[in-house]
Each structure stands twice: as C-alpha cells, then as structure tokens.
Amino acid sequence: FIDAWRCVACHACVRTCPENAIRLEERPEPAYRLDHAGCTGCGVCRDVCDRGAVRLLPWRQAEADVVPLRTGTCRACGVDYLSPTAGDARG
Hints:
Largest sheet: 4 strands, antiparallel
Order of helices and strands: HEEHEE
Strand order of the largest sheet: 1-2-3-4
Number of strands: 4
Number of helices: 2
Strand content: 15-25%
C-alpha cells in the first residue's frame, strides 16, 4: 500500500524492491503499479521510505494496484517532477 498523501514520488521504493513488485509506469499516464502477488513482504520498500508512505498490509485484500502520478513543473526552477494524485488510487 502506498499512501498518496505521504508519498513524494522519489521512486526509492521502486529502485529498491528486489521482486519488482512496485514499478513506475510512464505510459499511458505515469503511475506506480503494485504487484501484490509478487510481493514477498520483505519490507525493503517500507524501510527505504523516509516519509512512511509505504506500508505492508498482510492478510488483507489489496485496496489498490495503481497509484496515479501527475506531472508538474517547479515555478521557481523549471524542473519537471512527478507527484501522487492523492486520494485517486485505483484497484
């Protein structure tokens, strides 16, 4: 489970998941894709998240398998970024 209200889309969970159970998909819209069946429950994604946005929920049906991301551009420096669309996770 990724809490879109806490997530800052740094992709640390994506980069560290040894099972590729969390993936960043770029098309058609950017989103984190969660493969709940592929998750072994090792907790690496949870441990690497300094915002506490990743939680493991054992013995429960997954609430969502996609966390949509929106693109934005910083008004101060012009850098493009991704951020979760809070409250819009889809199952």
